[in-house]
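Postdoc handover notes: sequence design on the structure in folder B. Input tokens:
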């Protein structure tokens, strides 16, 4: 499937906070992700607890050992919701009402990706 890509502002805020080597790793893996968000080397998987709370399937792609991109798919749109360490899962779960609102807002394009 040919996907279109967009990101919410939270993704960009956290992207700019990454260390330079993490940004470079994300840029390298972005080519794979853009070709296929479920490319085997990305280890993309559903985050069950976040999906249940958001009432929409939420996925994570592994960029490097402790760097993940959280995303959702709506038809032909892939929306990246956040980037950060594995700890962001727990933080998202503890703020689940806000996360549900963030994911609902993800159906409106915010910014097209260009890492």
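Designed sequence:
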């Amino acid at each position: 499937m040919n996907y279109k890509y967009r990101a919410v502002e939270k993704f960009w805020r956290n992207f700019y906070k990454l260390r330079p080597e993490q940004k470079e790793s994300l840029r390298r893996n972005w080519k794979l992700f853009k070709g296929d968000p479920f490319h085997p080397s990305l280890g993309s998987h559903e985050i069950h607890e976040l999906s249940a709370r958001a009432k929409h399937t939420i996925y994570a792609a592994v960029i490097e050992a402790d760097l993940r991109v959280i995303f959702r798919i709506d038809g032909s749109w892939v929306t990246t919701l956040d980037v950060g360490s594995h700890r962001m899962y727990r933080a998202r779960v503890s703020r689940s009402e806000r996360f549900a609102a963030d994911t609902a807002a993800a159906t409106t394009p915010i910014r097209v990706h260009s890492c």
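Context for whoever picks this up: The CA atoms of residues 91 and 99 lie 10 Å apart. Don't rerun without checking with the PI first.
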